[in-house]
C-alpha cells in the first residue's frame, strides 16, 4: 500500500511538471493550470517552492531555445558600450527596453506578491482570469504589427511591462499578457514573441533568487525531493517542445485557438470547481 502511495505521489508531480512545461510558453496560464490540477488531485498547495522549482526548469528551456539571441544581444550590447558603433545600437537598445519592461512586474511582485499568492490562488479566480485571457487573445488574434526589434520605444517597453505585471495574478498567462501588450503596441509577431520570452528570463531569474528562502524553509521539500526532481525534468523537456510548437503557431497567426481554449476551461472551472 505504501509503494502504491509513493508511486501515485510521483505520478501526480510528473503530471504537474508536464502541465507546467506545456502551459508555460503558451498563452493559457501555467499557474492557473497548476492550481486546477492541485484542486483535482488534492495536492497540498503549501508555499511557493514547487512553482519556483518548475519555473526554473522552464527558464532553462527558454535559455536553450533563445541561446543564439541571448549571445548576440550580450555581445553586441557590450560592443556598443565600448565602441559606440551604430551596427550594435539596435541590440543595445533592445536590452535597455527589456530592463525597463522588467521593472513593473518586479515592483508588483515585491509589494503584492505574497498577498496575491494568498488571496487569489483559488479556482474561482483562475476561472475568471482565464476568461479575461480569452478576451485579450481574441482582441489581438488578427493583428499584424509593423515594428521590428529596432523600432521599439521606451513607451512600448513600459506598456509590455505593465501587461506582464498583471500576469502575477493566477490565470492571467504571462506569455499571453506580454504578447498581447507587444501586439497592441504594434510589434510584428516574431518581435513580440522574442521580446516576450527574453523578458521572461530576467523576471523568472529574479523571482527565483528572491524566493530561495521559500525553498530552503519549505518543510516538505526534503520529503518530496524525488517527485520535485522528476517534475523538474518533465517541465524542462515539455517546455522545450511546447515553446518550439508555439513559435510555429505564432508564425501562422493562430492565437484564436488559445482564446477558445481559455474560454471553455474558464467556464468549466467556474461551474464545476
Can you give me a brief rundown of this structure?
Helix content is 78%, strand content 0%.
Question: How would you describe this protein?
Answer:
By secondary structure, this protein is mainly alpha-helical. The protein has one domain (2-272). It is built from 12 helices and no strands. It has helices spanning 2-23, 30-41, 49-65, 67-83, 89-120, 123-139, 154-166, 174-184, 189-210, 212-216, 225-252, 256-272. Helix 3 (49-65) packs across helix 9. The longest helix is centred in the middle third of the chain and has 32 residues, at 89-120. It starts with a helix and ends with a helix. InterPro entries: UppP.
The 3D shape can be described as: globular
Largest sheet: none
Q: Which regions contain 5 or more consecutive residues with pLDDT less than 50?
A: none
Distance between the termini: 29 Å
Count of discrete domains: 1
Instruction: Give Rg in angstroms.
Output: 19 Å
How much of the polypeptide forms β-strand, as a percent range? under 5%
Helix content: over 70%
EC number: 3.6.1.27
GO biological process, one term: cell wall organization
Subcellular location: Cell membrane
Keywords: Antibiotic resistance, Cell membrane, Cell shape, Cell wall biogenesis/degradation, Hydrolase, Membrane, Peptidoglycan synthesis, Transmembrane, Transmembrane helix
Fold blueprint:
Blueprint: H1 2-23, H2 30-41, H3 49-65, H4 67-83, H5 89-120, H6 123-139, H7 154-166, H8 174-184, H9 189-210, H10 212-216, H11 225-252, H12 256-272
Function: Catalyzes the dephosphorylation of undecaprenyl diphosphate (UPP). Confers resistance to bacitracin.
Subcellular location: Cell membrane
EC number: 3.6.1.27
Amino acid at each position: 500500500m505504501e509503494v502504491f502511495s509513493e508511486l501515485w505521489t510521483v505520478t501526480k508531480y510528473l503530471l504537474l511538471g508536464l502541465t507546467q512545461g506545456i502551459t508555460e510558453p503558451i498563452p493559457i496560464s501555467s499557474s492557473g493550470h497548476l492550481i486546477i490540477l492541485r484542486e483535482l488531485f488534492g495536492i497540498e498547495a503549501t508555499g511557493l517552492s514547487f512553482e519556483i522549482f518548475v519555473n526554473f526548469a522552464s527558464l532553462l528551456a527558454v535559455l536553450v531555445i533563445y541561446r543564439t539571441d541571448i549571445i548576440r544581444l550580450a555581445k553586441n550590447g557590450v560592443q556598443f558600450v565600448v565602441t559606440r558603433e551604430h551596427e550594435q545600437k539596435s541590440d543595445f537598445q533592445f536590452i535597455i527596453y527589456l530592463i525597463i519592461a522588467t521593472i513593473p512586474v518586479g515592483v508588483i511582485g515585491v509589494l503584492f506578491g505574497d498577498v496575491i499568492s494568498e488571496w487569489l490562488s483559488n479556482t474561482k479566480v483562475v476561472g475568471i482570469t482565464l476568461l479575461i485571457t480569452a478576451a485579450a487573445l481574441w482582441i489581438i488574434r488578427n493583428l499584424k504589427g509593423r515594428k521590428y526589434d529596432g523600432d521599439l520605444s521606451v513607451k512600448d517597453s513600459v506598456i509590455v511591462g505593465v501587461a506582464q505585471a498583471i500576469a502575477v495574478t493566477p490565470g492571467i498567462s504571462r506569455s499571453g499578457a506580454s504578447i498581447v501588450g507587444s501586439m497592441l503596441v504594434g510589434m510584428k509577431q516574431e518581435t513580440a514573441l522574442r521580446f516576450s520570452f527574453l523578458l521572461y528570463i530576467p523576471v523568472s531569474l529574479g523571482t527565483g533568487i528572491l524566493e530561495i528562502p521559500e525553498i530552503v524553509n519549505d518543510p516538505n521539500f526534503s520529503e518530496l525531493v524525488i517527485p520535485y526532481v522528476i517534475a523538474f525534468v518533465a517541465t524542462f523537456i515539455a517546455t522545450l517542445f511546447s515553446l518550439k510548437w508555439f513559435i510555429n503557431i505564432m508564425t501562422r497567426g493562430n492565437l484564436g485557438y488559445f482564446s477558445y481554449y481559455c474560454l471553455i476551461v474558464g467556464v468549466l472551472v467556474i461551474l464545476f470547481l
